[in-house]
UniProtKB/TrEMBL annotation:
Species annotation: viral metagenome
Entry-linked InterPro entries: HSP_DnaJ_Cys-rich_dom_sf, P-loop_NTPase
Name of the protein described by the UniProt record: Uncharacterized protein
SUPFAM superfamilies: DnaJ/Hsp40 cysteine-rich domain, P-loop containing nucleoside triphosphate hydrolases
Gene3D superfamilies the UniProt entry points to: P-loop containing nucleotide triphosphate hydrolases
Length: 344
């Protein structure tokens, strides 16, 4: 039981009040007595004692939890989910495809996306992340309100690039852009449009990579009927973006892009065809504005995906480590369905 301080002690009341005020603006944080004492400038042993007593009171009241010498704010709030009256309709997002040859990624039409979902594209530098983001924007801007957030979109450079994407106009009949373009470098959750397709190209984290999980969770928390598509940088053959598996946890669809190939790391919900761990090859054409020759691929059986064997560069795969997968007809199936729909 905590020792009761003298109720008439003005100094105790002052310290206790400041502690309570500090707690109100630091909900959800972990801290210890040293931290709160420094931030409140409690330099005397008496002041620290009173702060410790007030923190102990909060533990007894069920407001704080103490683990070792650290305090954790207990969040007892919750939201009841009305699942019974929820819509089961998926979010009909249209994915990039080969504009000229009409080839499609095998996950298109099988990976299900719902309102409030997160899609992540993790890719090496210059592997096609921005191409994927812009093509996804182009395929959806006539059907959904879209917001594109970027940190490398100089106005003139952006205009030159998108005006090469001639298969669809980015301007409506009133002469205004069909989408919103925003420059943003941090705290993307603060400007998320809850009911839009929010495309963030890209989130740059230079250290404390584990924080990406909290960033994605904060973005997801702002979504209502919309979705977010997030581009992340990744290194080499690592399948995950910076932050590793922390960047995967809150996603419904996680795509990993390397040069001329894309792998589905995670498709949380799917129908007809399971795209998880499937890899697709592609080419980038027309000044970096379009995909082409999208097809299912697999690791080369002769070099085991290394691209080289005892004789040097593998002749079977041309040194890429990958060959076409004739047993996976998902791309052909989705492509044929799309062509038939276009002919109707």
């Amino acid at each position: 039981m905590v020792n009761e301080p003298e109720e008439t002690s003005g100094r105790y009341k002052e310290v206790a009040s400041r502690v309570r005020e500090w707690l109100e603006i630091h909900k959800g944080e972990h801290f210890d007595l040293d931290l709160i004492s420094r931030q409140l400038n409690l330099g005397t042993a008496e002041a620290r004692k009173y702060a410790a007593i007030e923190l102990s009171r909060k533990v007894q009241q069920g407001i704080l939890e103490k683990v070792s010498n650290r305090y954790i704010y207990i969040d007892s709030s919750y939201k009841v989910i009305d699942w019974l009256n929820a819509s089961v309709e998926s979010f009909d997002v249209k994915f990039p495809y080969g504009i000229e040859d009409q080839t499609k990624f095998g996950f298109d039409g099988s990976a299900l996306i719902s309102p409030g979902d997160i899609i992540v594209i993790a890719g090496q530098s210059n592997a096609g992340k921005t191409l994927f983001c812009l093509n996804l924007l182009w395929e959806n801007m006539d059907n959904y309100p879209c917001t594109l957030m970027g940190n490398e979109y100089a106005p003139g450079k952006f205009k030159r690039r998108v005006f090469r994407m001639k298969w669809r106009s980015p301007v409506n009949v009133d002469g205004q852009p069909k989408f919103e373009l925003i420059e943003r470098f941090n705290r993307w959750q603060d400007i998320i449009r809850p009911n839009n397709i929010n495309i963030i190209d890209w989130i740059n984290i230079t250290d404390n990579f584990y924080q990406i999980g909290g960033i994605i969770e904060a973005i997801k928390g702002k979504l209502e009927r919309g979705i977010a598509v997030i581009s992340l940088q990744k290194s080499g053959e690592n399948p995950h973006g910076r932050g590793g598996t922390f960047s995967v946890d809150m996603t419904s669809l996680y795509l990993s892009m390397d040069f001329n190939r894309l792998t589905v790391i995670k498709s949380k919900e799917w129908e007809r065809y399971n795209p998880n761990r499937k890899t697709y090859g592609f080419e980038i054409v027309n000044q970096g504005t379009q995909f082409q020759n999208i097809r299912a691929i697999k690791k080369c059986y002769r070099c085991k995906g290394n691209g080289f064997n005892n004789q040097g560069k593998c002749d079977e795969c041309g040194g890429t480590g990958w060959i076409d997968d004739p047993k996976d007809d998902s791309c052909e199936m989705i492509t044929q369905e799309y062509k038939e729909a276009q002919d109707e």
